Amino acid sequence: MTKSKPSRLLTGLMVLYLVYTLVPLVWLVISATKTQDDLLSTPGLWFGDSFALFSNIKETLTYNDGIFLRWLGNTLLYVVVGAGGATLLATAAGYGLAKYKFAGRRAVFAVLLGAIAIPGTALAVPTFLLFSKLGLTNTVWAIIIPSLISPFGLYLMWVYASEAIPFELLEAARIDGAGEVRIFTTVALRLLAPGVVTVLLFAVVATWNNYFLPLIMLSKPSLYPLTVGLTQWNSQATGVGANPIYNLVITGSLLTIVPLVVAFLLLQRFWQSGLSAGSVK
Amino acid sequence: MGAGVTVKGNKMKSFQRRRLLVAGTTIAALSLVLAACGSGNDSGSGGDTKQQGSPAAVDEALKAGGTITYWSWTPSAQAQVTAFEKAYPNVKVNYVNAGTGNDHYTKLQNTIKAGSGAPDVAQIEYQALPQFALPGSLVDLRQYGFDQFESAYTPSTWAAVHAGEGLFGLPQDSGPMALFYNKEVFDKYGLTVPKTWDEYIAAAKKLHAADPKKFITNDSGDAGFTTSMIWQAGGKPFSTDGKNVTINLADEGSKKWTSEWNQLVEGGLVSTIPGWSDAWFKALGDGTIATLPTGAWMPGVMEASVKAGAGKWRVAPMPTYDGQPVTAENGGSTQAVLKQSANPALAAGFVRWLNNGDGVKTFLASGGFPATTADLKAPEFVGKKSAYFGGQAINEVLTGAASTVAPGWSYLPYQLYANSIFGDTVGKSYQAKSGLDGGLKAWQDALVAYGNQQGFQVNG
């Protein structure tokens, strides 16, 4: 393999893209240091007259009896139970579909592809009517149950399990007398780990950013996740009795993305190996 | 981790069933969507299931007590609920802020469609009232004798809480339009306060020529503003009896308005900063936007959120076409009782207290602009000097506006939908800086088509 010269054009394009990606983040961080008055009177991409980051954070956490913390807790609950559950289900199901032969496998595959093709947003209203009949709207289950299903995660785990686990290994384990459950937990899961992390990250991001479903399902602010709560704060700036609190919306948004950034940094290693696995076979 | 995973493993067999269940759910959901597309307008509960009430039933219900749920986003709602519960200790009100404007209506509409989960009492803007009242989702309050309160309210707000024959709420606030202007900018550029729209356009040209960064006002296409301006020009583009709808956005009043406003839009004399954005709040403070023709509730918003404008702004009556004072309503809400309510008499009692009882005091204390004639006439209200407006007794102008609202206006029975497509039709004319008549025609065509789909008989 010859060593190729770095292309100036490509480097330039990447730098442009980097700037494009980072500018909103920079704006968010700078804006979070401004008071409501400074936000409206100083240029967006530089600091204002005062440095109000800490008072903004304090006010964000205490506004309306600390409802922000409640929303943060709700989001964490939906993410841990919803995304965690979705990952477990997708992993187990993907493994099962990849490694066991049984009738109806093709049907499952067809339904699965169909489910990936339909965006969740399109199903939100029908799901609402369905849940309303079951009396589940305005409860945490209205968010958690739909979050448990991740067709894309299942598909990913199915493909990943087909590639990552050799049948010979399962045969060997069976000959050694291990039960199917034990094979799954002690042999398969370890081999699947990079895939599991990938699916987990997808599910966490999807649940963390989930907006439309909770918007429709929930009418109690005490059950809102951060996305819906922050939008409610933002729309406070509209119409009769408008009471804009942009500084809190911005600071709240900053606080909202911090956990996701941390999750990505921590799980990055697995994520990369997960994406590239299977590409060389 | 191991334990958790083992449990998962044991459940693996039942997973197949679950997956099928999900598939079934998906199909069921899909057919629901299709059904919803086919059936058109759901006329709600249907049939005559409404309870017959009486004025006495309301007093009895308040005495007996109970629990009701109240959805609202008005700033005074929490304080009002607290005061109400103090006055009626037997009654518990679950106050819920389910969202502002469209978020609130989407949820309300969903609960109505689902047949459960709706609040007992909900805030509904005047423009949205027909949409909920005409399909039968709200309780007609005449059965509780609320029609006797007519004289307590301004004629325009009293008309706004009616749909068809029925009375579906009591007015909470009102928004008679006036011209808010930045005196500092006016003085600097030698502008005089316009009495007619011709003078207003002349001022717009003078200001923009003197400083191209300054605009007489902002308007990037806002359905609420456009309908109010047509209202002020004497237009009556919408009329309905609940089944038949007539739309004419090219009537005399509409044309009167576009003949003036087109000059501003085509000449690039209005700023395109969208209302209620952070840039807009900024522009109100730094003089970029010199005037705002808007509702009488604006002072509270400015005092709280446009601090940089303190001392600079004043209020004048709306410019008119012939110099004779006339204005329109912009914004404003009522509280209505939902048909789903298990205790409509108690809910009606809460509405009565809110908007025809002590609730009005709490509302006024929060800086709201009332719909009740007694409060609009009270000398301490009319004569109150506002420091923000340079010591001007602004309510003299604003209460004057409240008594000169043009009569006979009504909104569409699907006004929220109409507002939501305004940007795709009239908004395009704004973007192209072309005459608005073409955009209004496109809006009308879309509204006629939609109305017919929804089961109305629409003439347009």
Molecular structure report:
- The complex is a heterodimer of chains A (281) and B (460).
- In chain A, 75% of the residues lie in helices and 0% in strands.
- By secondary structure, chain A is mainly alpha-helical.
- In chain A, helix 4 crosses helix 7 and helix 9 runs antiparallel to helix 12 (246-276).
- The mean pLDDT of chain A is 89.
- In chain B, the strands form four sheets. Chain B has a five-stranded mixed sheet, with helices on both faces. Chain B has a three-stranded antiparallel sheet with strand order 10-7-11. A three-stranded mixed sheet of chain B has the order 8-9-13, covered by helices on one side.
- Chain B has helices at residues 2-10, 12-39, 55-64, 77-87, 102-114, 129-133, 155-160, 183-188, 197-210, 223-232, 252-266, 278-286, 298-305, 344-356, 359-365, 373-377, 379-382, 394-402, 415-420, 422-431, 436-453; strands at residues 66-71, 91-96, 121-125, 162-163, 166-167, 170-171, 177-182, 238-240, 244-247, 291-295, 313-317, 333-337, 457-459.
- Chain B has two domains: 55-174 and 331-377, Periplasmic binding protein-like II (D-Maltodextrin-Binding Protein, domain 2); 177-328 and 385-459, 3-Layer(aba) Sandwich (D-Maltodextrin-Binding Protein, domain 2).
- In chain B, helix 3 packs across helix 14 (344-356), helix 10 (223-232) crosses helix 11 and helix 20 packs antiparallel against helix 21 (436-453).
- Chain B starts with a helix and ends with a strand.
- Helices cover 47% and strands 12% of the residues of chain B.
What fold name goes in the CATH topology slot of chain A? MetI-like fold
CATH superfamily of chain A: MetI-like
Strand content of chain B: 5-15%
Largest sheet: number of strands, sense, barrel closure of chain B: 5 strands, mixed
Poorly predicted sequence stretches spanning 5 or more consecutive residues of chain B: 1-50
CATH class of chain A: Mainly Alpha
List the uncertain runs of chain A: none
Integer count of domains of chain B: 2
Mean pLDDT of chain B: 89
Tally of separate domains of chain A: 1
The major sheet of chain A is characterized as: none
